[in-house]
Amino acid sequence: ARISVPARARAPAPAVPAPALARASATAAKVERPASAAALLVAPPAPAAAPIPPVPVVSGLMVDGEDYRAELGPRRYRVRGLTRNADAAVLKVGLRLTVGGAGGEFFHQDTVDLCQAKQRSAFVAAAAEATRADAEAIRADLGTLLDWCEIAVESHRRAAAAPKGAERPPLSAEDEAAGRAFLTTPHLLDRIAADYDACGVVGDAAPKLVSYLCAVSRKLEQPLAVLTMAPSAAGKTSLQDGTLAFVPEEDRLCLSAMTGQALHYIEEDLSHRVLAIAEEEGASRAAYSLKLLQSEGKLSLAVPVKDPESGQITTRIREVRGPVALFLTTTAAQIDEELANRCIVLTVDESAEQTALVHQAQRERETLGGLMQRSRAAAIRRLHQNAQRLLEPVAIVNPYARFLSFRADRPRTRRDHMKYLSLIRAITYLHQHQRPRHVVQVEGREVVYIEVALEDIAAANALAAAILGRSLDELAPQTRALLGHLHRLVTARAATEGRQRATVRFTRREIREAIGWSPDQVDIHLARLERLEYVCAHHGGQGARYVYELIYDGQGQAGEAFVMGLAEVATIAAQAAAPTAATSASEGSTPDLRAGSDSVPWGVRVGSVGADREPEDGAIPDIVVIDPDGDDGEAPGGISNGAASSYHTHDVTPGSAAQRLAIGGEA
Question: Which among 28, 179, 192, 648 would be 20 to 30 A from 127, CA to CA?
Fold first, then answer.
């Protein structure tokens, strides 16, 4: 389409003959170039995050690589270097005019600033003399070119400022069917863990599943972040790379390092993508930006900019919009606490059994079966990528949210609790093709949502118990591992030598020989244990070596010191199926506990005992807790009044927490 652009108050441009337009179109059709080379200059589409007003299509100006060409009557113009100008206030270009005639082709070329009248006049005079063309026609052409070039520069500037992201490839019918079949697989999390093993990432399933769910959470409003801590060669990079291989290429951005201000000037569209950095050390200078991007979902930076027209310094706000799912790895024993508490901290199994599994997998890759498995692994990764492309934005509602629990003895659990809830959302989101969709009217518009299922909470509880407990530990995973090794070492020596644990002493060399760690690893983590008073150092005298005493009795070895206080799924189901008076009262309403009412939950009946007694002021009379079997077991459904062989009755005020606790204890 060709849309004429109104010129300024200059001499009107001469009419373009129809044959010239036909010749220009035919020339463009004959030359086979990439889509960006022989296409009309069109403004880029506005990104969803930051809408940009559309730029008009430029009439007659065609893109030819880095050059622009225009044909006005018998005069052909080539504009070179136009996009090097920062804005339309200065349009310094290399301008070439070619005119064909009976005597052949004549041309004139010069460097000219189209915004400078003096330079335009000089070009007109020289070009008219060199090409024997009419000077007034050339002057009118330059006015038209100026209009077109201003629009072209503005279009290029907007295109450069627009966030850039990889285009999502279309899915074939076969790939889409395979992806949907994968997403509807029963026991989907088990299938994902098995696919990790098939792709060469062997070992504990919990870190792999949490890493996968964090990658999937990139499409949610509050994505998760993962920080994998492990010593060198332990396999942390293999875990991260294995997860990233399942993510579609257009949804991930992998970097080796990042400078302090790099995120503020990035041209990539980061919204709902995975941002992976190979080592946390490579992003240490950008730690502040990463923390804000993870917690706030966007970055904003005020930068001084010189106005090209007035010369004054003005302030421009640069914004980078997220949210992103952040992936980091580190070998450091300790990292920035503010960054760590925004992430789910993963670690890698460093046991001898895990090392044997890794060796077995490495040897298997060298066989014919390994060659065939690599081909199958590529197909598995492609299947996961296509399946994740089929995950659609959908709201998630947790009908069991009121019945969940989480430990609250430390302020930092406020963030850990959100990680737990986000983990549940990610599991539900991954299973969206296995959940019925519901529609609700919200302020006049329809909102589609899916609900969290009890099995989603059960899976989240299992993963949280294995992973989130580390976030409450004052020791880094590797330091905690060393403490466990020392505990077993001291316990074994005390039993072998028949002495008290407090009298057992050990040296750094004995530690290295017992657990096979390097001297640097032992030095770093033993020093931290000593600083936190898990280990006490004893000087052996001048010239003698240090010996150490373990002042730790194994607390937390079974996880009891780091229990997250999560509600059991059976308890959640029972509470959801049988809301108590306390639950209803907490929602701001008095429960309907009349005898024979359909809303009376199982196990609770009113009026079967003491119906002739007057209640206290504000109390509901005679709430009866029934155990039909008389053995304090679970009450089956279908209880009828008077069917109890044991019961407890109590007057209770719904707003009184003390009375609610009392009736539960007495019953």
Answer: 28
Q: What is the pLDDT of residue 574?
A: 87
Q: Are 385 and 247 in contact (CB under 8 A)?
A: yes
Burial of 544 (0-12, 13-18, 19+ CB in 10 A): exposed
| Chain centroid to CA 323 | 6
- Give the C-alpha separation, 75 to 58, whole Å: 18
Radius of gyration of the chain (CA): 36
Q: For the full predicted model, state whether its pTM sits above 0.70.
A: no
CA 333 – CA 376 distance, rounded (Å) = 37
In 273-293, which positions are buried (b, 16+ CB within 10 angstroms) versus exposed (e)? bbbbbbbbebbbebbebbbbb
- Range with lowest mean pLDDT among 43-47, 149-153, 299-303, 498-502: 43-47
Whether 136 and 143 have beta carbons less than 8 Å apart is answered as no
Q: Are the C-beta atoms of residues 299 and 266 closer than 8 Å to each other? A: no
Other CB atoms within 10 A of residue 164 CB: 13
CA dihedral 571, 577, 581, 586 (to 10 degrees): 80
Number of helices (H), then strands (E), belonging to the chain: the values are 19, 20
Residue 613: CB atoms within 10 Å: 10
d(CA 273, CA 132) in angstroms, rounded, equals: 59
Quote the pLDDT of residue 545.
77
Residue whose entry in the numeric block shows the structure tokens 């994902």:
192
Across 37-145, where does the E strand assignment appear? Answer: 62-64, 67-72, 75-80, 92-101, 104-113
User: Hunting for tokens 């990439």 — which residue is that?
Assistant: 34
Q: How many CA atoms lie within 13 A of 28 on its CB side?
A: 22
pLDDT digits (tens, 9 = 90+) for 328-348: 888 876 667 777 788 888 888
- Distance between CA atoms of residues 359 and 39, nearest Å: 55
Counting every residue written for the chain, the total comes to 667
Handedness of CA 57, 58, 64, 68 (dihedral sign): negative
* Percent of the chain topping pLDDT 70: 72
d(CA 440, CA 35): 44
Cβ atoms 650, 623 nearer than 8 A: yes
Q: Per the structure block, which two tokens stand in for 138?
A: 């050339």
Q: In this predicted structure, what is the pLDDT of residue 220?
A: 93
C-alpha separations of 428 from 79, 128, 189 in Å: 56, 73, 11
Residue 422 above 90 pLDDT?
Answer: yes
DSSP code, position 403:
G
Location of structure tokens 């990432």: 201
High-pLDDT (> 90) share of the chain, %: 28
In whole angstroms, what separates CA 13 from the centre of its chain? 54
Evaluate whether 51 touches 113 at the Cβ level (below 8 Å): no
Distance CA 28, CA 586 (A): 73
What's the token pair of residue 177? 């069917």
Distance separating alpha carbons of residues 277 and 264, to the nearest angstrom: 16
- Asked whether residue 542 carries a pLDDT value surpassing 60, the answer given is no
Q: Which of 184, 234, 180 is nearest to 207 (CA)?
A: 234
